[in-house]
């Protein structure tokens, strides 16, 4: 074998050194790629951790509220609970502990109607611990005062913005924003179980579900679903979970409904008898309506001209009334208008044709209107410092509305009556109360479906006394099982 010349050896050396340099550069490039991959992974992990921490740390204690003087004299917690597929629906809540004995007092979950009205409406206008000061609005932040008649004097209340898209609740995907009666029921049930797992100190408290208006449609099936997903301790099933294995055990005792929409036909058909009883239409028109329409005002035959004419006359007579409370001024609604089944805007009375709904920008309500107070809530909730105090997630919600009727919501339950029948056989207690000046859901319709349950009357009609004055009428009845307590109260407003 011939030996290599010096020139060849130098060439081979250069080639070898070149290969080593190339290999070294590849190693350096590989190291750079690995370092970059590690950096990207670390950043991704950090982002995921931050998101998880935000979702885990999803509740806050609120000690001060803008517009309220001094620290709150009650315990307020706000937060989010993720429900649905991948928790893409984030339901917001306000939780107020009982001011009496939260360890033993009942726990009440409250849903406001609409669908699409925020539970804040119930908190600040109805049963919660604070109210707005109704003062002439000058552009400054509305102020608050304590409500001496708050239900939180006796119970802890969980006010939930449901369905998703209501109040400060929001969806993280377009699909998650699609909702309806059954989806709302399922998601609130999921919300409750997750919330109780995060607040185990309330697991032993007696539990009730409450709501008003449209919640009369969704609360009964919600109670049914909660009941189906747990073993009722008082019935002696003796298991910590049901056959399906759904946890936690919930000490469900019953439900409360105010002016509840229950059956579309029954509620609608009771409006004309109510109007006649209140002296809003003449005896002659009332008798003619009964004859021409046969008592069915919910499903009028388009070929029945006489019934249509009488119904039109009825609509014109009541068009100037606030049908939510017939004795109050008829004022601008100050919310996007409700929609009909075809997605078109409507008022609470489908046939109402007042100027308010013809005017695309109606005048703001005056201080004597109930809707003036609703305007204050919108101005308050959209304040930056209020959102900061409530720990609202930045970018999760645009303009807050008391009632959002633009939700992609499907009304699937025409009547909740069958759920009342089913729940009564299980012995759950029920309180139904109605204002006697509500023409949207008249007390006559509510009384009719309660009577159709054929319960035995335990305490017949009697005065309901408040501060030594008659504030309404009530009765108590029981089914043959002896397990159900239905109380019907009528009070002005």
TrEMBL record:
Any GO BP annotation: secondary metabolic process
InterPro entries reported in the protein's UniProt record: AB_hydrolase_fold, Peptidase_S10
Signal peptide: none
Short name of any one Pfam family annotated for the protein: Peptidase_S10
GO molecular function, one term: acyltransferase activity, transferring groups other than amino-acyl groups
Bias kind Basic and acidic residues: ranges: 337-356
UniProt xrefs under PANTHER family: SERINE CARBOXYPEPTIDASE-LIKE 19, SERINE PROTEASE FAMILY S10 SERINE CARBOXYPEPTIDASE
Entry similarity comment: Belongs to the peptidase S10 family.
The protein's name in its UniProt record: Uncharacterized protein
Organism annotation: Citrus x changshan-huyou
């Amino acid at each position: 074998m011939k030996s290599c010349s010096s020139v060849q050896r130098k060439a081979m050396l250069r080639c070898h050194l070149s290969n080593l340099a190339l290999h070294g550069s590849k190693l350096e490039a590989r190291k750079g790629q690995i370092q970059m991959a590690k950096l990207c992974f670390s950043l991704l992990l950090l982002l995921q951790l931050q998101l998880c921490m935000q979702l885990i740390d999803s509740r806050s204690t609120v000690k001060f509220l803008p517009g309220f003087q001094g620290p709150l004299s009650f315990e307020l917690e706000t937060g989010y609970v993720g429900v649905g597929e991948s928790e893409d629906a984030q339901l917001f809540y306000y939780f107020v502990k009982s001011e009496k004995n939260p360890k033993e007092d009942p726990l009440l979950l409250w849903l406001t109607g609409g669908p699409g009205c925020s539970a804040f409406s119930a908190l600040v206008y109805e049963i919660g611990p604070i109210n707005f000061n109704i003062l002439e609005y000058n552009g400054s932040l509305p102020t608050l005062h304590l409500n001496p008649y708050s239900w939180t004097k006796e119970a802890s209340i969980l006010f939930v913005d449901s369905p998703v898209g209501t109040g400060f609740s929001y969806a993280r995907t377009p699909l998650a924003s699609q909702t309806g009666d059954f989806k709302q029921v399922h998601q609130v049930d999921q919300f409750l179980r997750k919330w109780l797992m995060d607040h185990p100190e309330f697991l032993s408290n007696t539990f009730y579900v409450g709501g008003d208006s449209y919640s009369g449609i969704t609360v009964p099936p919600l109670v049914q679903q909660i009941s189906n997903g747990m073993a009722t301790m008082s019935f002696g099933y003796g298991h910590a979970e049901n056959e399906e294995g759904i946890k936690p055990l919930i000490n469900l005792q019953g439900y409360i409904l105010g002016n509840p929409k229950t059956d579309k036909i029954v509620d609608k058909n009771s409006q004309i008898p109510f109007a006649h009883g209140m002296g809003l239409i003449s005896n002659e028109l009332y008798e003619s309506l009964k004859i021409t329409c046969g008592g069915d005002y919910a499903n009028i035959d388009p070929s029945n001209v006489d019934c249509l004419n009488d119904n039109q006359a009825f609509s014109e007579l009541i068009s100037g009334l606030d049908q939510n409370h017939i004795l109050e001024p008829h004022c601008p609604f100050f919310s996007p208008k409700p929609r009909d089944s075809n997605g078109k805007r409507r008022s609470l009375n489908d046939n109402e044709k007042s100027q308010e709904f013809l005017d695309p920008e109606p005048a703001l309500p005056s201080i004597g209107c109930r809707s003036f107070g609703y305007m204050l809530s919108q101005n308050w909730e959209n304040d930056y410092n209020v959102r900061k105090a409530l720990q609202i997630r930045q970018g999760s919600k645009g303009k807050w509305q008391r009632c959002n009727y633009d939700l992609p919501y499907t009304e699937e339950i025409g009547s909740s009556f069958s759920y009342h029948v089913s729940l009564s056989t299980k012995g759950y207690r029920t309180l139904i109360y109605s204002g006697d000046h509500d023409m949207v859901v008249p007390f006559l319709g509510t009384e009719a479906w309660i009577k159709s349950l054929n319960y035995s009357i335990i305490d017949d009609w009697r005065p309901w006394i408040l501060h030594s004055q008659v504030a309404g009428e009530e009765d108590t009845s029981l089914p043959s099982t002896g397990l159900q307590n239905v109380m019907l109260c009528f009070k002005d407003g």
